[in-house]
Write a structure and sequence with these properties.
The chain is of the alpha/beta class. The protein has three domains: about 280 residues, Catalase HpII,  Chain A, domain 1 (Beta Barrel); about 80 residues, Hemocyanin, N-terminal domain (Up-down Bundle); about 150 residues, Rossmann fold (3-Layer(aba) Sandwich). Helices cover about 25% and strands about 15% of the residues. The protein has 18 helices and 18 strands. Helix 4 runs parallel beside helix 12 and helix 14 packs across helix 18. The radius of gyration is 29 Å and the shape is globular. It starts with a helix and ends in a 12-residue tail after the last helix. It catalyses: 2 H2O2 = O2 + 2 H2O. It is an enzyme of class 1 (oxidoreductase). Its cofactor is heme. Keywords: Heme, Hydrogen peroxide, Iron, Metal-binding, Oxidoreductase, Peroxidase. Its EC number is 1.11.1.6.
Amino acid sequence: MTDAKRTQQENYQAQDPASGPLTTDQGVAVDHTDDSLRVGERGPTLLEDFHFREKLTHFDHERIPERVVHARGAGAYGYFQPYESCAAFTQAAFLQDPDVKTPVFVRFSTVQGPRGSADTVRDIRGFATKFYTSQGNYDLVGNNVPVFFIQDGIKFPDFVHALKPEPHNEIPTGASAHDTLWDFVSLQPETLHAIMWLMSDRAIPRSFRMMQGFGVHTFRFVDAEGNGTFVKFHWKPRLGVRSLVWDEAQECQGRDPDFNRRDLWQAIEAGDFPEWELGVQLVPEEDEFAFDFDLLDATKLIPEELVPVRPIGRMVLDRNPENFFAETEQVAFHTANLVPGIDFTNDPLLQARNFSYLDTQLLRLGGPNFAQLPVNRPVAPVRTNHRDGPHQSVVHSGATSYTPNSLGGGCPAIAGADAGAYRHHVERVDGETIRRRSASFQDHYSQAALFWNSMSDWEKQHIVDAFRFELGKVEAMSVRARTVEVLASVDGTLARAVAEGIGVPAPRQGADHHKGNSPALSQESLRGDGSIRTRRIALLVADGLETEHLAPIREALSSRGATVEAIAPHDGKITGLDGSGYVVDRALPTVASVLYDAVLLPDGPPGDSPLLTEEAAVRFVRDAYRHGKPIGALGSGVALLERLGVAADAHGVVTAPSASSRGDGAPSSDDGEEFTGRFTEAVAAHRHWNRPALRH
């Protein structure tokens, strides 16, 4: 490569803003960008001001169409590493060598709302992973629930139109609680299984770092001999599966609409790298029809009690993007981006996605060359005969751009048998051309009931509350009533509880005969590694704080990976009991309990705590209690709990007396360690239900 060509390619990359002066797109230095060129100080602007025209023209064309669904997202880079070779069931190269780390980019997203909507809406979350493998890019484009709302892709436009804001008034934004969605649901019972997941706390995750991911569809692994194995993909977070509750999710939308985005970004910046384990459910091809549901039905899952999830590797996200638009917004996923060793099945929803994703990227990213964008560019060599088109950035050499050719030496040559070429799995397909769904797709209730039966009591109550909220927003009483009748086919108790809350007659009978359950579906079974790493603990402080006893406890919690923030009625410092200053991290007016995982009330001056007169502090503690969050209290902090009507012996409330109440006048390290241990266990459990109501 000549020096001129090298310089040209290097300059094409984004330049360090501090490396030189402002320039035009042509590299011409600019000495003034605050005023356009005009005739005199008050005269007309001149068209010859090329800098003015270039600057505004670029600004006018900065936006690209946002995604129709999954518009609001956040992303990060990292790597995937297999535990051992998976050659027994797939030839995919990135699943063979435990010493090889495959780069990845992951994008998390909500489905319904536009880019400007909030993070914590009730919605399904996208979980899409791009593997930059040595054989080319592989995209695992999934969600945080294992099933979808429809069985055939031809219904996808109908479903999304019903889910999206209603066309006459563009309301609601980022929400499913409206007439058109529930009208569709009540008329399409195939949606019920996914709806049960949507009404559960899975639809309001505490963090992207604390939610599962699923490939949804049944795919196929293919080994080196061409033998196929059906496969379902699972991402399981190391931190466990944690959720918000609906009340705090709604408040988060106002307190911090970027709650999940910020959480992901800050964790990676702090070095608390999120980690997931990739697991697979493997089904031999000869067992395709061994279940009472169809493996090709995307509204069904394989219960883990029937086919256990086999862990095959781990993924770590360790780098934030440099530029949101260039990377997170322009990343292009496609279910048909496969590598040798992974193939499709005849799932009709998957087949539709294989068409739709590429079609969408052509519109969003302005033409067929979007794979050349840095975030989409494979690490594997790319040699094609594709030419020209919008945004072509490759300077191709040679006289030929077709196959076969002799003038170019036959290059690029067709890959030989030993070159790792992709080969589709061979299977015989025959049948009549029809528009008819298989009878094996007709059971829409059993797995919805399985999900309901697998929930703990508190999860069931949250599902009932969610249905009451959603259907309570529906104006058409006929839609409310019809939805309840459909729910009765899932579970009569559920239907009756929902009907009671939304003012429609309870169904005369309901299906209470579905008895199966799958413990793996409940969040009670998904507690993670038991650590408190990355949990946010609010330390409510005021003047008179007893710092000597508190310091080792705060240090111990931080050493376990928690983030402890001192929150006071004002910023700056407060005055400790010994007269020293204590630095405040946040002021009460800027935060709320919903932004934290636990609350710690330290010891302070004898008598009533100064926090009792702070309305925000009182609400902070009471909200934490109502939302089942761990609360720790020391000394006068215990008295504060009593004054607020919080039972000191309630689940997840951990207390310890003050040094003065013991009569020795000095804090005990043993007491501090014992309290810290109990409080750590409470925080690790995340939520504590079955609490008595606040006494006043």
